[in-house]
Each structure stands twice: as C-alpha cells, then as structure tokens.
Amino acid sequence: MREKSIDVTAAEDFGNAVIGVRTGTEIEIEARLESLHDGILVSGSVDTEATGECVRCLIEVRIPVEVEFQELFAYSFDEAFDYTVQDDHVDLEPVVRDAVVLSLPFQPVCQEDCLGLCPICGVRLLDNPGHEHDAPVDPRWAALAGLEGLTEASTPHVDVAEASPHADAEEEKR
Ligand SMILES: [Zn+2]
Ligand SMILES: [Zn+2]
After folding, report:
1. What is the C-alpha separation between 142 and 128, in angstroms, rounded?
2. In the beta sheet, which residues pair with residue 8?
3. Residues 29/6, Cβ–Cβ less than 8 Å
4. How far apart are CA 65 and CA 50, in angstroms?
5. Tens of pLDDT along the chain (174 residues)?
6. How far is the CA of 89 from the centre of ligand 2 (A)?
7. CA–centroid distance, residue 128 to ligand 2 (Å)
8. Which ligand has its closest atom nearest to the C-alpha of 131?
9. Distance of alpha carbon 138 from alpha carbon 105, whole angstroms
10. Ligand 2 centroid – CA 137 distance (Å)
11. Helix or strand or coil: residue 32?
12. Cα–Cα distance, 55 to 112 (Å, whole number)
C-alpha cells in the first residue's frame, strides 16, 4: 500500500454548463494505492474550487469542492473494469474529473435566499433592499387612461324620456 499527495493545476476547464473548475485552478489529491489480486485499488479525496455564476442573480460564485473517489485499475484489460494499469502507471485524471463534475450543482446560487434580479430594471435585489417601482403600467392601459377624461366630458347627459324614442313610437301606433 502506498499513499501519495499530489498537487496539480487543472490543465483545462471541466464542469457543467454553469459551474466548473477553471484552467489553472489548484487541485489537491490525496490518494491511497492498494495492490489487490486483480489490480490496483486507488481511493482518495480531491480538494479544489469551482467557479461559476449564480443562476438567479448572475454574480460570480466560488464553491469549495471536496469529493472522494475509488477506482480499481485492472492489471490487464478486463471488461468488468473501466480502467487499466498502463506502463506501471494509473491515470487518475479521468477519475478525478468524473468525481468533481458529478459533485457540482446544476443550479449554483450565491446564497440560498438569493432574490435574483429585478424583473423590471435588472438590479440585483440583495444589493438593493426595499427596491421597488411604481405599479407597472401596461402601455395598452396607458392609452385608455388618456381617453378617460375625454369620455367623461363628451358623454351628453340625457333625459330618460328623450332617450327612449322607441317608447314614443309604440305610443303613436295605439
Ligand atoms: Zn445570487
Ligand atoms: Zn428594478
């Protein structure tokens, strides 16, 4: 059994669409290698940092990533195992990458109660407590509001008698 501490930097970005470990980020790996009958069992932990955007307010978020992994590297090709020892080496990169990517959130938020952005002007609501606008005016209603004065002024006041010529006509027929 052997134990190894490995410090590397990410050679390329890896993650999902919204968050990931960026190129150049330090990755600390503690690995324990055990020789078994079929191969080498590698178990360990990964410690690094992922960078992305809050899905609600779009500011940058950095989250610590601490994940564990365990994989058996077969001495010779074996369908039962995904990895094989090659030239006396085990390639931990894909194992570490998978463990990290699977641990990342699909909906990272800057904080659990992030309020997102104002739907009207787009400011970040957490930075602007008490932020509000006058009641939004739908342009169609705005047009009607302009007509309101006109309608009142131009509606003539009518007498009930004058307003019912139909009733008079009925009267004359009799
Ligand atoms: Zn946020
Ligand atoms: Zn606003």
Report:
1. 28
2. 27
3. yes
4. 7
5. 999 999 999 999 999 999 999 999 999 999 999 999 999 999 999 999 999 999 999 999 999 999 999 999 999 888 888 999 999 999 999 999 999 999 999 999 999 999 999 999 999 999 998 888 887 566 666 666 665 555 555 555 555 555 445 545 455 554
6. 57
7. 9
8. 2
9. 38
10. 14
11. strand
12. 11
| Distance of CA 116 from the midpoint of ligand 2 (Å) | 11
Ligand number nearest to the C-alpha of 60:
1
Q: Which long-range contacts (CB under 8 A, 24 or more apart) does 72-77 make?
A: 72/36, 72/38, 72/39, 72/40, 72/41, 72/42, 73/39, 73/40, 73/41, 73/42, 74/38, 74/39, 75/38, 75/39, 75/40
Distance in angstroms (rounded) separating the CA atoms of residues 96 and 67: 9
Question: What pTM was computed for the model?
Answer: 0.70
Ligand nearest to the CA of 118: 2
Ligand 1 centroid, distance to 161 Cα (angstroms): 67
